[in-house]
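Memo to structure team: turn this sequence into structure tokens by end of day. - J.P.
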Amino acid sequence: MKSDAYQLIKATQRMPSPKGVALEILRLTDSDDTTVEALGVVIESDPALSSQLLKIVNSPLSGMSRKVGSISRATVLLGFNTVASLALSLSVVTDNRESTCEGFDYDQFWSESLAQAVAGRHLAKLTKLFSPDETFTCGLLSQIGRLAFASAYPDRYSQALRVVGEDRNELNEFETELFGISHDALAAEMMNDWRLPELFSESVRGQQNPDAAGFEPDSRPYKFAKLLHLSGAIAEVLVSLTVEPDKLSSITNEAFHLGIRPDQLQEAFDLIREEWRDAGRIFRIPTREVPTLGEIHSRCTKRRSDLAEAG
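Reply from structure team:
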């Protein structure tokens, strides 16, 4: 059941939404009679989308051991849902590259979303709890509610950003006061509308604070929300020019509770930063060079020491 707040926002007809080929992909995924060949024909009808998708499939992001030359073959090897979700994600990114909302940094938004997608994929591989490819898709779209507000209500959302900045906890609360729904809840309802897996929408709704979201202990949505929260924290480190020591400690603790040791986290982070840059070239999303996690730790320690001496 869609909320009244979501229906009002959707009625503006300015929300980011799948168009053209992406809409047809949604129709196919909603049908029990759809074949791999039918999905391939639809995706290949958009040469740009098809080319980008094959670049992803043939990149380290997919983990494929051999090159794939067709969408149909990629669908057989990766699975129908994985390819459909990746194609949908690419379409949403491509069709939503402009914003009229003052103060909403479009490049920064997609850069951080892509960082979360890549981080989520690696965490899924490490924990072996979820499909890495589906986690990538969910991570890429997990903050889509923020873009929806910026698109549907550019002036009012610009005001919200001026008041609370980019802090996601405060932003969720202020959005609920202003629009009757938070960006996490809005993203969840959008995912439901797009017929993405229910696990996505359930987890995204509670991703900012999984422990207070009412999940059943040890349930899949709870674990997925925890993974999304951790991947989001890693993404913030990747896009931030400065990192607080407390942020790194929190990430290490969260990773440990998901069964990821500090040495595994450091190795994963260093892979994530490289794949984020590779993915940025495929998606045409700006990224930046990031030090290794060890270097970031060293810089934080030195800054803390310098502050202590200055004080």
